[in-house]
Amino acid sequence: MSTYKIEIKDNLLRVSFGEPAQNDQIVRDAAARLEEMAASGELAGGPLLKINGPISIPVAFVLAHKLAHIYGAVAFYDPKLGKYVISITHNPSYKLGDLID
Q1: What is one Pfam family matched by this protein (predicted)?
Q2: Within 13 A of 10's CA, how many CA atoms are on the CB side?
Q3: Which helix (H) or strand (E) holds 5?
Q4: Torsion angle of alpha carbons 42, 78, 90, 95, nearest 10°?
Q5: Are strands 49-52 and 4-9 parallel, antiparallel or unpaired?
Q6: What pLDDT is stored for residue 14 in this prediction?
């Protein structure tokens, strides 16, 4: 079992912690899972990817680095706002800080 779980469905990436571990191992597991998903075609890219679930700052950097190259915009869910916040964008349809459902 992995220390970090990542699944995608309909351009929504669901993330969660798995087995207890420190960030050094969690970062490696998250990166490995993203590579596995890219190799299998699960991460096909597109205009927008939403991410929902608990995440540490080091894991957020790994996801941002890997996903910003294949998606036009990336948004993280903010439970306080009840919306996704555009955090990375190369897509003119989305501006940094835009709130989307």
Answers
A1: Cas_csx3
A2: 0
A3: strand 4-9
A4: 150
A5: unpaired
A6: 98
Q: Which domain holds residue 22?
A: 4-100
The string of pLDDT tens digits covering residues 53-82 is 999 999 999 999 999 999 999 999 999 999
pTM above 0.85, yes or no: yes
Q: How many structural domains does the chain have?
A: 1
Place of tokens 């869910």: 77
Contact 17, 54 (CB under 8 A): yes
CA separation for the pair 95, 20 (Å, rounded): 36
Q: What letter represents residue 49's amino acid?
A: L
Size of the chain, expressed as the number of residues it contains: 101
Distance CA 95, CA 87 (A): 9
Which tokens in the block code for residue 28?
């490696």
In the block, tokens 């087995």 appear at: 19
| 3-state secondary structure at position 71 | strand
The pLDDT assigned to 1 comes to 58
Average of per-residue pLDDT across 26-49: 96
